[in-house]
Design goal:
By secondary structure, the chain is an alpha/beta fold. About 25% of the residues lie in helices and about 30% in strands.
Length: about 400
Amino acid sequence: MNDRTDVLIVGAGQGGAQTAAVLRQQHFAGTITLVGAERDPPYERPALSKEYLAGEKAFDKMLLHPPRSWADRDIELVLGERVIEVDARAHRARLASGATIGYGTLVWATGGEPRRLTCSGHDLRGVHTVRTREDVDRLRAELAAATRVVVIGGGYIGLEAAAVLVKLGKRVTVVEALDRVLARVAGEELSRFYEAEHRAHGVDVRLSAKVACIEEAGGAATGVRLEDGEVLPAEMVVVGIGITPLVEPLVAAGARAGDGVVVDLQGKTSLPDVFAIGDCAAHENVHARGELVRLESIQNANDQATIAAKAIVGKPDRYEAVPWFWSNQWDLRLQTVGLSRGHDATVVRGDLGARRFSVVYFREGKIVALDCVNAMKDYVQGKALIASGRALDPSAVARADVELKTLL
């Protein structure tokens, strides 16, 4: 490992890998060092709660690039290491091993770590999160001994894991503290649809249910006790309650922070020559009326990485991409485009009963987001409607026999 590099990228996930790749695509000739906390080379993370958990996708098919390609592009990989301190004035970073690396430019792409339960029993054997390959490998190793699984958290990770576990023959209960699943990311129409789908597939969905503790015997989880006293028996508990951005070294170095490190539309932090991208970075999003937003998606990581890499090579641009996201559950393909936060009206295109529809979100007469279930055409055409910024008649949008592109 070199003790100095022109560009030091901390975090070998999607954003970090994309930054390194785009730098070389932009003919950056300097040295690049990519430091990752995991021992695996960069890989796609969304498959962890879907195909990889289900055993349907081998890990080597999840790699972002063939392992030898990093060296072929003269990108140094330092794996199994964490940066624990940044000296922004001296342009040096210290690793957990004690080594230090000097840098010309630093790109912080560490993502986040799963939020943990704070109640008693949170660290018992049988309690799992889904964030890394190692997490899922541990979970899969214990699956054979588990008949009943409690999933804590009714967001996308929790629901995706629940769907896979039911397919694997487990009896699954989802515990959500709010009064509907997906409450933080979607409108009520979509929430109630997915709640009904999970119930129809045999998932016991508990809403407005708060966890008191994890019951145990011999150091292993045996159930989840709710605040009302009910105990949900389980040999395995999967916790999916969000992530905490991994930004402590930058904050300690003086970076402006809130929910993550705050960056401008080029990905620059308040520290000199330091960028931050992906799950750990908050920016004033143009599609959220300039509100400070931290997005957790492949699209955001890739697009912010591209913007940062271009800024480093002297081709500055602004991050104004329309956000998108997807989720696979059962035979349902959900594709979301835009940001629904702050919407003041919704319409539904299509038929929920036919399991092919879109929830369209409006703010002040303009479409700001769509949740499209098995409706690829709406997803593709809806993106153009969002980008147009035009006010549209909701009654026209609601007509499923009218293609969205004709409304432009």
